[in-house]
């Protein structure tokens, strides 16, 4: 089906443009790094590819460097770079060791030097040097989780117990410049949240930390109490940050792909955060309104929806979003709704997302499938498998959230 | 606040244009009714206003007429028209009596005659002549509801047990022409659903009816069984239908009001049907994406959202939608999300809907109000009351669903 081909083309194009490799190359265009030494520090699940792009772009300009990524995420040697694999989501000795190497490599730099800091999702575990014993840090995290503390509260505490989080890595690099390229995997790009912001001024204060300690009655060692009293950097004059490969870029890449296929695209949002199934219904309602269009249209919504599980089926938020749109677009003309995760995996499945068009609901009905019952059981995967609506890309090497797209082809 | 003034202006304008009076006048423009007799039959909650518009437009051309509306919905005499008030949502003796009068008035008409049939929401109860005793009809309805039958199934049965539903009124009027003006209050304007379609061919079949009887094991009298075997009209050559005052017109009226206030509007849909709170979050995500706009923008979504109650608070779908958008638009610049029911009543409250802007969330927080807790308790009314965000219009005299609007003022 033509419209499915268009969808696949858009997905391929959008995912390629937010790959760490392409994204880092874009962020580096225009940067010269003519003076002093250039130290590369890459941390996160995409660290290897980000470093590869930097090496290919900057070559011999890079004095030396370190990559710390998740186990099985290194794809080989990179000239002049030390590569480490370490624990994620729980940091381990290798995380601490590699981080120590990075800290050594970036100490005693001069004002002319630059640290090229490449950060991606997972960096919070992979790039870490706790200032208290790792067991104690885990215990405090467990206490916070058990009390129902939110992620902002947890980070407020953890930043103060780390030698690198909350802007402390950038402070460590002073007076060198930190040229930070951040591959954002959090909607809205909150820099201090991505990998707990090693090169980002910390908005939280010691008073915040004390309030959290009191609120939850945390049990802390004297050392930990002392650390919570030491303030994090509130300004970092030596940092230049480039956010790249974000969901905004995913949407814009999808938009460009739509144009090249003859659709007139409109980005509705890049911070979708509602329930997946309801977003699917909303988008199908948009499709219905424009059913009489004479020109091909595309509506793009980026973000990360949520699923509140009710059933025991197989699926993911993108598959659920797409299947939830099937009934609403049934019997329209040449209309599709599809949704995909830029990391190529949607929920605990081998699919990146799901695709439905005007015929999906009817074809499933003919096969005796009750789409609403499948949705109630969170079993979008099996429904889409039967309708040929699974989107399979394989792991893509990056994660900048999802895009959900309505196509109306004329 | 300026943007609240704009919202109120848009609400006022949009509601006015879908008022029965304005809507009927638009639908009648161009109709002549030069031949034969012209019999007016108006049924539904808006029957009186629809008849008033017809009388004002057609005057002496109307031979005679009958209005049947809900108790307290008549606003006085209309020349040449018999006016009845009757039971809604449960039909009563007055419904049956008035419907009988209408049937008498429209029998033995000639090919030159015209029945001007003005239908609005509530017509299903107000315009009814059951073919079995009313108690039995109520018992069957109760059985269907208890079994979890859906509205399509219920109507399939009820149309066959009525002398007027499912196209039978129009068949009764033959060979006269039925000029039907329908004030739509159901998303998507399904003519056979509005007041159970007295002048609309019936898509359901006797086989459908029998299947429903078997599916739910309905207990039926012999008379009822016999009636379910008599087929409803599948085509009605004597009917000309004009749908007016629909949610589409509500959206377009809002769109025109936006333009006149300097906003560039975009209608996203006129058939929104998802969970109210999720629609609010979706619209707030749209607002966030366009936060950097240089020109004033408006996004309009018409339809009728749903609320699955979790709490015991006070509210309605429009208030819940608006309040659910408050967090997502907080701290944006001059941005509002509001939602209102065109009938002026939203849920069991005296409000028509709700309004929030970028300051609402923070102001409620300052007052010690946890917006999410209020939403979890379905208590949007009380939150919006405190923030000054209730939209109060009073009963408007019509119901063509809701409009939810994002305004970004520059």
Structure description:
2 copies of one chain form a homodimer. Chain A is built from 16 helices and 12 strands. With 410 residues, the first copy, chain A, is an alpha/beta fold. The first copy, chain A, has 2 domains: 175 residues, glycerate kinase, domain 1 (3-Layer(aba) Sandwich), CATH 3.40.1480; 224 residues, Glycerate kinase, MOFRL-like N-terminal domain (Rossmann fold, 3-Layer(aba) Sandwich). Chain A has a 6-stranded parallel beta sheet, with helices on both faces. A 6-stranded mixed beta sheet of chain A has the order 7-8-12-9-10-11, sandwiched between helices. In chain A, β1, α3 and β2 form a beta-alpha-beta unit. Chain A is globular, with a radius of gyration of 23 Å.
Would you summarize the structure shown here?
The structure is a homodimer of 410-residue chains. Chain A is an alpha/beta fold.
Number of domains of chain A: 2
Largest sheet of chain A: 6 strands, parallel
Strand order of the largest sheet of chain A: 3-2-1-4-5-6
Using only C-alpha atoms, the radius of gyration of chain A works out to: 23 Å
The best one-word shape of chain A is: globular
CATH superfamily of the largest domain in chain A: Glycerate kinase, MOFRL-like N-terminal domain
What is the oligomer described by this structure? homodimer
Query: Number of DSSP helices of chain A?
Result: 16
| Content of β-strand of chain A | 15-25%
Give average pLDDT of chain A, whole number: 93
Biggest interface found: A-B, 22 and 22 residues
Structural class of chain A: alpha/beta
């Amino acid at each position: 089906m033509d419209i499915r081909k268009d969808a696949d083309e858009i997905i391929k194009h959008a995912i390629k443009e937010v790959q760490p490799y392409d994204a880092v190359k874009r962020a580096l265009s225009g940067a010269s790094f003519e003076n002093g030494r250039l130290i590369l520090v890459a941390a996160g699940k995409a660290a290897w590819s980000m470093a590869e792009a930097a090496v290919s772009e900057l070559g011999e300009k890079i004095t030396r460097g370190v990559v710390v990524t998740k186990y099985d995420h290194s794809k080989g040697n990179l000239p002049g770079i030390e590569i480490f694999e370490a624990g994620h989501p729980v940091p381990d000795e290798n995380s601490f060791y590699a981080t120590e190497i990075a800290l050594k490599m970036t100490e005693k730099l001069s004002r002319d030097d630059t640290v090229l800091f490449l950060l991606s999702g997972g960096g919070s575990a992979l790039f870490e040097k706790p200032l208290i014993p790792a067991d104690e840090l885990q215990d405090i995290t467990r206490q916070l989780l058990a009390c129902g503390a939110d992620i902002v509260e947890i980070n407020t505490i953890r930043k103060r117990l780390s030698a690198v989080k909350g802007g402390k890595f950038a402070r460590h690099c002073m007076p060198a410049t930190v040229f930070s390229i951040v591959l954002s995997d959090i909607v809205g790009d909150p820099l201090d949240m991505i990998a707990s912001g090693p090169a980002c001024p910390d908005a939280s204060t010691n008073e915040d930390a004390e309030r959290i300690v009191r609120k939850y009655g945390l049990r802390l060692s004297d050392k930990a109490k002392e650390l919570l009293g030491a303030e994090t950097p509130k300004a970092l004059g030596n940092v230049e940050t480039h956010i790249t490969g974000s969901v905004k870029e995913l949407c814009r890449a999808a938009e460009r792909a739509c144009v090249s296929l003859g659709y007139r695209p409109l980005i509705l949002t890049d911070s979708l955060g509602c329930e997946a199934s309801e977003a699917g219904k909303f988008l199908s309602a948009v499709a219905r309104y424009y059913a009489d269009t004479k020109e091909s249209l595309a509506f793009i919504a980026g973000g990360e929806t949520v699923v509140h599980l009710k059933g025991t089926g197989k699926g993911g938020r993108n598959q659920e979003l797409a299947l939830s749109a099937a009934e609403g677009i049934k019997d329209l003309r040449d209309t599709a709704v599809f949704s995909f995760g830029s990391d190529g995996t949607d929920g605990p499945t081998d699919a990146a997302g799901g695709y439905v068009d005007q015929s999906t609901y009817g074809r499933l009905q003919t096969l005796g499938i009750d789409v609403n019952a499948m949705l109630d059981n969170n079993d979008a995967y099996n429904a889409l498998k039967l309708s040929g609506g699974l989107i399979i890309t394989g792991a893509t090497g990056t994660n900048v959230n999802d895009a959900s797209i309505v196509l109306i082809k004329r």
